[in-house]
Amino acid sequence: MRSVGIDIGSLSIKVADVELVGRSLILRDFLEVPYSLDITMDKKIQVLESLRRVAAHYDPSTTKFVVGISQDRISVRKKPFPFREKLKILKSLPFELEDEIPFDQARAIYDVKLIKYAKNFSDVLACATPNKYIEEILQITNDAGIDPDIISTDGFALANLFTNWWLPPPEADSLTSNSVMVETSESGAEPHPVASSDLYLHFGHSKTILFVLQNQYLIETRCINVGGLEIVKAIQKTYGISYADALKGLQEKGFILTKNDGASKDQISFSNTIQGALEPLLLEIKKTMLELESQNNISIQNILIMGGGSHLINMTPYLTQKLGVITNPLSYLTNGIKVYAQQTPSLEKNSAVAVGLAIEGLKRPKNPAINFRKGPYAKDGASLSSFFQKWKKTFQYAAAALVVFTIYSYTRATLSNNLIDKAREALKTVAQSPTVGLKGAQTREIAIKKYISEKKKEITDYQKLSDMKVINSPMDVMNKISQVMPQKNNFSIDVRELSVQNEMVQLS
């Protein structure tokens, strides 16, 4: 089964075709379709046309489609629960998030990501999104001929690239014991050991996604609504150029100066413009880092960056200076994924979310995907209908075989019951034998001899009766005489004496 992740982004639509062969994750193909920068072009029409191309390329009976909702449309809260069962957690979510989510609960879909267990307790990342965003995705995908199996989100999809997504959530003790411990201290407090963790940043066009991993397991994810768009607007405003020219200049020539020595005035001005646009983002990242470290008792030791904004020249040393944490670029394509897709700059820069979404479609029940397609938006039985049509003849033969087997089983059971009844009657007859109930060998012997004697007498009587059948009765003799005598009309006969002895007859 192939899984196709579809990332509907701000500048383009990205599609990744991923397959799991044994234990190997294979990226079969990747496609990016940029939107036109002409403001007169309708973005929805461009998305619809791109999705139709995807729908025509894949067979829905052998392909699982995963579409992502933008992370800024998802509300995520970390919550503890006094039980481990996911169904119980899902039932409790509306009450737990009643005062924490910024939209109507009655018009929202919930899901959870189990991140760790602690005996009978569990920590989860609870997610909620308004119904309208689910409806928007279903409308545009269905119009394009795609019926998504899973509707997930960016942050959890990105985490799949660097976590053990095929394993169940870890136990809290093992998670902590296997983590690297470092000494940290706050102002006025004694140094104490905390778990070392890594912060991952994905710089997109309209937002920046953060997530924290501890020992290759996800523990937090956040979204900051600041991205490359702010830099494009700053360049556009500074140089008085169009949006398309500003975006092209940033993508092809964007850079940041870590020091101004030897740089021209224009270079310094361009770098300062980008840095000024990044200041609000860096401030939000610092605040989020402090919050995450405090809430999870961790220390962020490394920052790894990816996405389009991470490819700005000198971006990593600039972030290291500003954030005070070692920052390095990251290529997810070297993290145990076999790449059969064509190697292009677009694949390296913009495919992470689409590939992560495709991995969501490969997850097993022990660590299920985040899926907002549930409740009133659960997938209908269209695929079941097509499956039935495909295997209709097989089902008919199987039904006929089942009927024959049922009749055979019923007949065999009936015959078996009849034989059992006859066996019981025979046993009952034997049980009623004269020997039943007698005690002692001598008593049984007397009863047996008596039974044999009675049977012999019956046989003798039968023989006597059979002999009597051949004896001639006097009436038979008289009948014979009447037949041979002349008719009485001719003369008269006076019988004086009649003697019958066996076969001798004397008549006077």
What report would you give on this structure?
This protein has 508 residues and is an alpha/beta fold. Helix content is 43%, strand content 24%. The chain is built from 15 helices and 17 strands. The protein has helices at 43-57, 86-96, 131-143, 154-159, 172-177, 228-239, 243-253, 265-296, 315-323, 345-350, 352-360, 382-390, 392-431, 441-468, 474-484; strands at residues 2-8, 12-21, 24-34, 63-69, 75-81, 108-118, 121-130, 150-153, 181-184, 192-203, 208-214, 217-224, 298-307, 326-329, 337-339, 498-501, 504-507. The strands form 4 sheets. It has a 6-stranded mixed beta sheet with strand order 8-4-1-2-3-15. Strands 9, 10, 11, 12, 13 and 14 form a 6-stranded mixed beta sheet that branches. Strands 5-7-6 form a 3-stranded antiparallel beta sheet. Helix 6 crosses helix 7 (243-253) and helix 6 runs antiparallel to helix 8. The longest helix is centred in the C-terminal third of the chain and has 40 residues, at 392-431. It starts with a strand and ends with a strand.
Task: Please supply descriptive tags for the structure shown above.
15 helices, alpha/beta, 24% strand, 508 residues, six-stranded mixed beta sheet
